[in-house]
Design goal:
Length: about 230
């Protein structure tokens, strides 16, 4: 289930075998990342979805200093290129892992399990009726705004939509809590040495929650946009 197992590779400079770290233990030269290395491995971390953000930031600053191009000014062109590449990868990795939701999205995307498409655009079945009512209210708001009808009617519609927006924001928080629960299940399964099938099942559940979250978040953003324009 965990794809962070290190693969033995050979140093490009001294040809000593090493476990795929940032630097060769024998000669100290910076090394290219082995193919398929994920962002967790980049920080020397397991593929766990809960992490101490302060510790992640500390690791980020430590590695940023070690890999910074200023440390390779007098090195070979190849080492300078590796430094620039690694620094860029490190920045991307930090952005992806410092946020709990983007961390889940990255884990799934790296494993080829992030499925969006049509499912992302469909209203979750349990919200169909509420989404229908919300869309009706939005259509009515646009109609009232376009026809410059009574201001009191517009104000009443905006108030109603404001209430509905807060209701969907609450649902978004519920979805985030559900995602956290599954993420904790993932970490527990990782510690227990769960097999690939169990890992894929958990990823599929997280993907469904992410799609639901994306739909609701877009819905809330759309309501906020319409209210601002009104």
């Amino acid at each position: 289930m965990d794809a962070t197992t290190k693969t033995e590779v050979v140093c490009w400079s001294c040809h000593a075998a090493h476990s795929g770290g940032h630097f060769c233990a024998a000669c100290g030269k910076i090394q290219p990342l082995p193919r398929g290395t994920d962002y967790f491995v980049l920080f020397g971390l397991p593929q766990k979805l809960w992490m101490d953000c302060a510790e992640l930031e500390k690791l980020f600053h430590q590695l940023s200093w070690k890999l910074h191009p200023d440390n390779f000014v007098r090195a070979s062109e190849y080492e300078r290129e590796l430094s620039l590449e690694r620094s860029s990868q490190l920045n991307d990795a930090y952005r992806a892992l410092r946020d709990p939701v983007s961390r889940v999205e990255y884990l799934l995307a790296h494993a080829g399990m992030r499925k969006e498409g049509a499912a992302k655009q469909q209203a979750p079945p349990e919200l169909l009726e509420e989404v229908f009512e919300l869309n009706e209210s939005l259509d009515e708001l646009r109609l009232v705004r376009a026809s410059s009808r009574d201001g009191a009617e517009l104000a009443a519609l905006k108030q109603r939509l404001d209430v509905e927006e807060k209701k969907f924001e609450a649902k978004l928080r519920e979805v985030d809590e559900e995602l956290k629960r599954i993420a904790r299940e993932w970490d527990t399964a990782l510690d227990a040495g769960a097999d690939a099938q169990q890992g894929m099942a958990l990823m599929a559940r997280m993907n469904d929650v992410l799609n639901r979250r994306s739909y609701i978040r877009n819905l809330v953003a759309n309501v906020q946009k319409e209210l601002a324009e009104a």
